[in-house]
């Protein structure tokens, strides 16, 4: 099951670590801030590794939501 993840744009410094670890999930926008391109783009453990790798703590895992 894929994790859902949020990016705090105020904290993101555009290091790109999350893109390295989970390239199927994250991309940079035109301000070099990380955005979630595809919430299910990588396995949950891969996304968790990316969250842990973020040097500024800009990423946070969200609870999985059923339905909708
Ligand atoms: S690893 Fe963190 S600081 Fe770097 S681009 Fe991703 S969210 Fe931004």
TrEMBL record:
Keywords, alphabetical: 3Fe-4S, Electron transport, Iron, Iron-sulfur, Metal-binding, Transport
Pfam hit, one: Fer4_13
Cofactor entry: [3Fe-4S] cluster
Keyword check for Electron transport: yes
Any GO molecular function: electron transfer activity
Entry keyword Aminoacyl-tRNA synthetase: no
Function: Ferredoxins are iron-sulfur proteins that transfer electrons in a wide variety of metabolic reactions.
Name the UniProt record assigns to this protein: Ferredoxin
Species this chain originates from: Actinomadura physcomitrii
